Model the fold of this input.
Amino acid sequence: MAAKRTRRRLVAWCSPLIVFALIAAACGGGNDDADANDPQESTAVETTETTAPDADGDSGEDTPSAPDATSTPEDEPLVAPIDTTTTTLATDNDADSDDEMELQPQFGGTLRVGVEAEGDGLNPAASNFAVSAYVMTYPIFDPVAYWGVDGRWTPYLAESFTPVGDGSSWQMKLREGVQFHDGTALDAEDSIATFRAQLADPIVSLAVRPVFLAENPIEQIDDLTVQYNLNEPSAHFPQQVTSQLGMILPSEWLARAQTDETLNQSPVGTGPFMIESRILDEVTTLVRNPNYWAADITDIYLDRIEIYPITDSVIAAERVIAGDLDLIITSNSDAILTLRDADGVQTFENLRSSEEFAMMNTQMAPFDDIRARKALTFATNREAYVPLIRQGTAPLAETMFHPDLIWHNPDVKQQTDMPEEAAPLVDEYCGDFPDNCTNDGLIKIELQHSGPSVEQNRIAELLIDSWEPYFEVEVDELLQDDHIIQVALGSYNVVTWRQFGEIDPDNDVLWIECRAIGIISLNWPRHCDDERDALLYEQRGTDDLNRRVEIWHEIQQQIRDSYTYIFFTHANWTIGAADNVHNVCGQTSPTGVELFCNNQGRVQLHQIWLS
Amino acid sequence: MRFLARRLLLLVAVLLAVTFCGFSAMNLLGDPLTNVVGVLAELDCDAIAAGTAPDTTVDAASSDCDTVAAARAQYHLDRAVPMRYLLWLGDLAIGDFGTSFQNDQPVSAVLREKLPETLLLLVMAQIVSLGIAVPWGVIAAYKANRAFDRGSTVASFGLLSVPNFALGVILLYLLALRWQIFPSAYESGDFTSRLFSLILPALTLGLPLAASYQRLLRTDLITTLQEDYVHMARAKGLPPMRIMFRHALRPSMFSVVTVFGVSTGTLIGGSLIVERIFGIPGIGREIVTAVVRDDFPVVLAIVMVVAIAFVVLNFLVDLLYSWLDPRVRTS
Amino acid sequence: MLRRRLGISFWLAIAWLALMAFVALFAPILPLTDPTQVAFGGPRESPSLDAWFGTDALGRDVFSRTMHGARISLAVGGFAIAFGMLIGGGLGILAGYFRGLLDQTVRFAFFVLLSFPALVLAILITATLERSLLVVSLTIGILAVAPVGLLSRASTLVFAEREFVAAARVLGARHGRIIMRELLPNVVIPMGALALLGMAIAVVAEGSLAFLGLSVAGDDSISWGKMIVDGSGLRDLQNAAHVALFPVLVMFVTVLALNFAGDRIRQHFDVKELAF
Done:
């Protein structure tokens, strides 16, 4: 039985190419230095306000993050706040501030949410989560750790994390007295059982294996404490368990799920909401958990959350405007523009997560030759991408980091839109490898993309228009599943893709390290650079922010010089919500830390309230 | 009785052939193992078992090969296609449609959820088209060859020439976005809001159908109006509309009834498009998704259901037809 | 005589079709702008003297694209119906002439084909195979086989009973000769009258496949269906409806002309309606 899921799962995460990043379990703390310069951090929506009960900063907080926090040189936040452009209806305009002041959080109500796709399975130990699966499952599970608004990890379901020695091992202590929805108590055994299930899963494990020791990756210390043993020392390991890898299932439930796959649709967690019903491709309904363990520290206002997969995001946006939905999450340019134009809708745009790019397979001709890769890069018309494909909703990308982020290296520029430089390289290449070229001296390549998709077709047509003078391009439009499989197996020339954008880039290491190259490869371009790997692991082992920034600057340089990716834009993940939806951003952890909001579209819904 | 038995036999044979063709096509055109286990299908498990495979950290271990082996066994992939088909039929006989590759749901559950939406849509489309076609056809026949009739011929040609995806897009634009009379997408929720949100899709499907019904009805009505009993009724001084509806309409519905079966087939095709435009969670949208994702248990089940419906419907129409016209039985 | 009976509107329809056929054949050498040239104008510009139908999302000339789009749309329509007539018509004649087991087998096969909902069959094929012009044409052609076949079988049955066929048989003519000399001209020519109606259906079928993203793939494969899909996102419809509406209009007029001319020819030869 298990067999069947496998492919779907690989696909599931790959598929929304988008999503990729997640599995890695990683979520890292992306940062930007620049919160100060961020002009737009405008307004209001900032729900910082009222909502949260003042979290009693409980004890747990300090201890665990200590190693982290201390080493950070400045106090500046690592991550810039999300832009919140508030297009308003009466309310906000009137007076944001007053308004928010006056409004008391209200209990009750149903939040209706639109997501771009169905999450195929909701079992964090067996399904690979894309954005929609995260939106559905964060309220069901409390991840053991999560991102603070400053881009640093903070304990959530776990009480504390403590490094052992140089950080090659980390101990995680769970909270006492936490109950699952089915009434059983959370303990270390559940955590271990979940981890082992993830490691045993053929696809989920692809992303797990590189991080942990093959032998004895996890061990139990006491009833509530487990120890993770890592391949490389890490100074910020808890980042890795902010994603689905940090969601814990009851061990007894896991045993049942082994034989009954339908359970994948109705997982049991410890979170403030429980699954009430789920009709695939139609609606998933969550109801409030009456026995939520953190009920006295975190106010939960909503009675129900209904999540609708709506493939056409513009329709979803129209429905928010019409009042048929309360909140949607989208990265579609048309939908974002529709939301921006509308009255009575607030938008939370995050331009700093995930990049759109083309990438080349360095283990297959012609792109095994750097001259061909360079020529393709030079020939690319990137300038047209932002206005024509993204309609200005997303900014041009030079590297995998948005310029607002401290990691960004301003000296690294993509060498595109210089076709004249491509010509001599193509001539030279075709001189050496006439078999890979046409008689007129064009390099023969295949551009593979997923489909059917109007947008993907447009991107392909735009790219080919600029490549045509130097390359003979054949288009291979594959169904999304096959597309991902071909890329994972390394049987492609050049593809369009979306990835990166973790809050902390350490969680993106998976896509570039040599270890991730194999028959099935997560390092899709299959470009291995041992020097780069050394740098990657060095930054993993240190919390010296200056050093880490220096290393990432160098890595960006190396990535550019390897000519494996052609970055187009920083994707824009937007949350659009009706004006009566409050506390989208500004939610807090059980220890009172303000949480990061809209991490690549992943948003926590459970502390929202409606007026 | 013998006639009935022969027809039933034919029906079963057609269904077997349809499913066999579908089953073979999906098995031969796509790679079922890849459909089930994805990339793992590419693993060289023999080499891994023998320990000769290149080893890499992220790569599959022997547990993945167990997964592959389990999949092979579960779907009988070591057997020949005809044998696999028989096994599939066996499962079907005990009511087991299999499990979706996509989300581990039993296919029967998928059908149970999606079928009612499509049925509702088809019924509404037929109602809409008849509701439009009958008065339209009657008036056209009544005013045969006058300006209205000629205009309506042009109009029906026009409607028959608009592809339904274009009609859907145009109606969506005008009635949902521009004038905001109808919702732009399917609304789940209570029955009335569902019905209301299905009006626009039903109109998209029903309008061209109304045009073709209207043309049939008009022709038949004109013929009927030449009949003696109609002349007689007219001579008796009955009002023309009464003659139309009370005397002429019923005998003139014959052609419309006979194409009813065929038109349902057309509507099912149209529902693939329309359900997509309006986001209706029916089998039309489901099968497009399933085809695109190679989820072949779902595809086969839907093809099967649709074929059954189509064949049975035409069978019933034939029965009705032969009952009305005994000559058909002998041929 | 013929002219009077077919009427002026028939000739208007034929003139439009001839124009489209001409454009389709000669699009590459006509003085049109390059239909794949990105940023010919700004994105989504309204119709102007430079770009008669405006520009699309990538700033390409919609007029030039619409004209080039006639190539694939009409080619698919033409190939498909030719294939349907060749295979379906041929099988139908053989079945109708020889009767017996062959007839039963062929009819059964037609019935099975008809029992697949047409579009489902088409997406099954195009989703799994490489979507070249040939594959898409053949796929739609297969859809035409059964209805055309049933029709040609039926009219073969009628003609096979006629005196001239019986006479030929009595005179000892071979089957092949009877089929080629007597049946083919009498069955296929009237069926040819239905070719235009069939082509209308095939053009729409190509558009439907394109709408589902399953028509001819490749960056230089412009078809009306693809253009319509490209322009019919909700936001595009609201702000730049011309991108979708011009190809819709041209496709509509073409299908209308095919239907109209086809129907006139059908009436002229008194052939029964073609039912898909």
